[in-house]
Design brief:
single chain, 222 residues, 6-stranded mixed beta sheet, elongated
Length: 222
């Protein structure tokens, strides 16, 4: 026969057991806005390159002058190791697509190429400018607690913005030179061309941001 009193120990155990859940939140080193500003500027720069002279030619894309290099020691020997930023990798992929859509035939082995295309960049980055009309956030010197001068706590003053504007400008410069693989003779070149992207965020009396720009928005549609 079922006895309700038998449930009391189980209920006490259930309610006394603590429960918790942990959500791991990770952020990449660069925000989505920063990545869009640079990648879209790269696309805009590459769109201006003229690749007509490479149509129907077997092309090898050389990115050694586009990426960086560092010295590493392997088994006591000093060697050069190339390293590529995400923006450089994206630009290299975009250039390959630009060549393919322009009629070039990209080969996977340098020995099979008729033409070598060397890509380079004058710079890929973001300029940032902030304007504030109001009181910026600050931390004042500590004050004594309980009349003791030895226990001081800093006072944080929050930002009071009547008007605030954050302007971000993405820039990318890309160019290439092409020459014959067998003789090294100059064939064609294009660039440097510069792609530009913008994003402006506005706050008025603490309300905002209101965002304008030519990159995909990172806010959910309303």
């Amino acid at each position: 026969m079922f006895k309700p009193a038998a449930l009391i120990p189980l209920l006490l155990l259930f309610f006394s057991a603590g429960g918790c859940a942990t959500i791991r939140v990770t952020d990449p080193p660069r925000s989505a806005t920063e990545q869009f500003l640079m990648s879209q500027a790269i696309t805009a720069a590459l769109r201006q390159l003229n690749v007509d002279a490479l149509r129907d030619r077997k092309v090898w894309v050389e990115t050694g002058y586009f990426t960086g290099a560092e010295q590493v020691i392997v088994n006591g020997e000093v060697r050069q190791r190339l390293f590529t930023t995400p923006e450089q990798a994206f630009a290299a992929g975009e250039l390959r697509e630009r060549l393919l859509t322009g009629g070039a035939r990209i080969v996977q082995d340098r020995k099979l190429a008729d033409v070598i295309v060397e890509v380079r960049s004058g710079g890929i980055g973001i300029d940032r400018l902030e304007n504030l009309i109001g009181v910026p956030a600050s931390v004042l010197g500590g004050v004594g607690v309980g009349g003791s001068s030895s226990a001081n706590l800093p006072i944080a003053i929050p930002e009071i913005a009547l008007y605030k504007n954050t302007r971000q400008r993405g820039f990318a410069s890309v160019s290439f030179v092409a020459y014959r693989a067998d003789t090294g003779e100059y064939l064609t070149s294009s660039g440097p061309y510069i792609g530009r992207t913008i994003r402006d965020d506005f706050w008025l009396f603490g309300a905002g941001p209101r965002t304008v720009g030519n990159i995909p928005t990172t806010e959910a549609p309303r």
